[in-house]
Amino acid sequence: MSKSLLIIGGGGHASVLIDILRQQKREIVGIVSPQAVAESNVFEGINVFLKDEDVFEFDKSSIKLVNGIGPMPKNDLRAIIFSKFKAIGYEFETVVSDNSIISLYANLEEGVQVLPGAIIQTDALIGANSIINSGAIIEHGCIIGRNNHIAPGATLSGQVHTRESVHVGTGASVIQNINIERDVVIGAGAIITSDVEPRTICYPARAVRKVIK
Ligand code: JB2
């Protein structure tokens, strides 16, 4: 039987995960959020705990955690939460929307989250604690590192390899066989056609504006 779930974080990303989990009839025992939970009917009726230490009220063997903190460039909180509770012995649930399409021959590591409309093709590997956000496409043979965020609508063509803590922004496109090193941020809408060095920000090309005479 599936274990009950405790959600870490109570913002927009957590609301999307809870919606998926409720549709799958999973039991949610609470949310841990130091700030007030976001205004959304999704959170109605769920117990809220205010401190990360409140997680210890739940036995490691009886629940799984869901990492509801969204990753933001230059903010490691999501990765810190994952490694902190893993080190203590808690497990993280892998959350996969019923409205995503995942090849039978793809592999997802612990704590991966695949949101509605995402497609993950054959032989892709998604590293622990990474998010494949709504409508993103991960083509065949891609290897996605740990703690990545592939934002809504981004497309990674075949055999793209991202290392740890990469953020691919909304609607960005990466052509096939590209290597993206760790801590890279690909800006929303950028088109990547060559390998990217570690700790690089890739800005999208700006449209040149000219008044028509
Ligand atoms: O130390 C903490 C902590 N710090 C902030 N421990 C715990 N347990 N929770 C923490 N939080 C919680 O993170 C706040 O209480 C708040 O509920 C949540 C942050 O919510 P916010 O709506 O600001 O962001 P988000 O993480 O849900 O979503 C971000 O990432 C998504 C992928 C946003 O950028 C979204 O737009 C994006 N879709």
Topology:
Blueprint: E1 4-8, H1 12-23, E2 28-32, E3 48-49, E4 63-67, H2 77-88, E5 95-96, E6 101-102, E7 107-108, E8 113-114, E9 119-120, E10 125-126, E11 131-132, E12 137-138, E13 143-144, E14 149-150, E15 155-156, E16 161-162, E17 167-168, E18 173-174, E19 179-180, E20 185-186, E21 191-192, E22 201-202
Parallel strand pairs: 1-2, 1-4, 2-3, 5-8, 6-9, 7-10, 8-11, 9-12, 10-13, 11-14, 12-15, 13-16, 14-17, 15-18, 16-19, 17-20, 18-21, 20-22
Description:
- The protein has 213 residues and is an alpha/beta fold.
- It folds into two domains: 4-93, 3-Layer(aba) Sandwich (Rossmann fold); 96-208, Hexapeptide repeat proteins (UDP N-Acetylglucosamine Acyltransferase, domain 1, 3 Solenoid), CATH 2.160.10.10.
- It is built from two helices and 22 strands.
- The longest helix is centred in the N-terminal third of the chain and has 12 residues, at 12-23.
- The chain is globular.
- It binds GDP-perosamine (JB2).
- GDP-perosamine is lined by residues 8-14, 32-35, 38, 52, 69-70, 72, 77.
- This is Acetyltransferase.
- Keywords: Acyltransferase, Repeat, Transferase.
- Residues 5-84 form the PglD N-terminal domain.
- Belongs to the transferase hexapeptide repeat family.
